[in-house]
Amino acid sequence: MVLRTQKVRLYPNKTMQKVLDDLCDYRRYCWNAGLALWNDMYEEALILDDKRLRPNEYKVRNELVANKADWQYRFSARCLRLAISDLNKAWKNFFDKAQVDWGKPRFKSKKATRQGFKTDRAKIIKGKLLLDKPHGIKNWYDIHMSGAKLLTGELKVVSIYRENGKYWASLPFEVNIETKPKTDHVTAIDVNVGHINYTEGKINTLPDDLKHLYKRIKHYQRTLARKRVVNGKRATKSNNYVKTRAKLQRDYRKVANIQHDIMQKFTTQLVEEYDKIVIEDLAVKEMQMTHVASKGLQRSMFGYFRQILSYKCDWNGKKLILADKYYPSTQRCSKCGHIKTGEEKVGLNGNLKYRTKHNEYICYECGSVMDRDENAVYNLLALIN
């Protein structure tokens, strides 16, 4: 059994729009109230040096439930419970510095463009989403949705969120899947800014339509920067500002859709054609040295690629091999095994001493001349043998 999540667009009527908006606000209230209480308990435990006073999910949740105000009974109790459950996970991650986005949980802002909540009592009835109805509420309706392919399996915790005036839901289903047939083929993948190399060729992750969208995003960002202050006053609520911001957010959604489509199709192709796949365990955070490099790495979606490839390999019984982040796939010659060191190393701008290009690899031991990325692919492939 595996969890498969489908993202769908919701079309609530005006009554249910108000319900969803209120639940988003209530979820934010529960998170912030729980986090404030958690911080107080944690500081008290530190000051008194008493581990028994340390907060946990049950203490915080029971305290909030015991002090519920009358207006809170209009909302589903699951909203509060799941908010504190997520807060508990966030605090556990805070003590695990190996996490990618390690840090202390923060308060949620009502100004954030994305607001949402979770429920584990939602149902799918005749292709519509039905939320759990609190006591004392008369008007309650099913929510139309689109974008779902297969609504089969056991529905788990549903995440519903509002972004830029539109409503979305992530529907996780626990399903049985058939694994892909074995092919006895292996491959290695070298991810780069703008493209991904593997044994059969190269995938372009920065097509022309994405380049065009990035130019438009840059234009809208500059336009918004000029509209923020007019005649010495903040003008972020003017009609022109709101229109431009909506266009910017629309293009961000288009970019994300194109990127996700490329990654999903490529990873599906990989698990269908290969039994063993080798990729590098890149330290992306450490690679973001400059503003330009950081932007290129974020657009290339290294982390997202590894995430979806990992779970697709698990689903289909394929083996994903991670090369150590210190493995010299770029510096090693795939022909003779010589590893460049010191002034011979190939950097982002090639090699300054020998004036080689960024995408050029020249071995000074055996004289081989290769494409830098293809050489890295063959070095990664050697880890399987």
Automatic annotation (TrEMBL):
InterPro entries: Cas12f1-like_TNB, Transposase, Transposase_put_HTH. The keyword ATP-binding does not apply. GO terms for biological process: DNA recombination; transposition. Keywords: DNA recombination, DNA-binding, Metal-binding, Transposition, Zinc. Residues 173-288 form the Probable transposase IS891/IS1136/IS1341 domain. Residues 302-380 form the Cas12f1-like TNB domain. Residues 1-44 form the Transposase putative helix-turn-helix domain. It comes from the Bacteria. One of its GO terms (molecular function) is DNA binding. In the C-terminal section; belongs to the transposase 35 family. This is Transposase. It comes from Ligilactobacillus animalis.
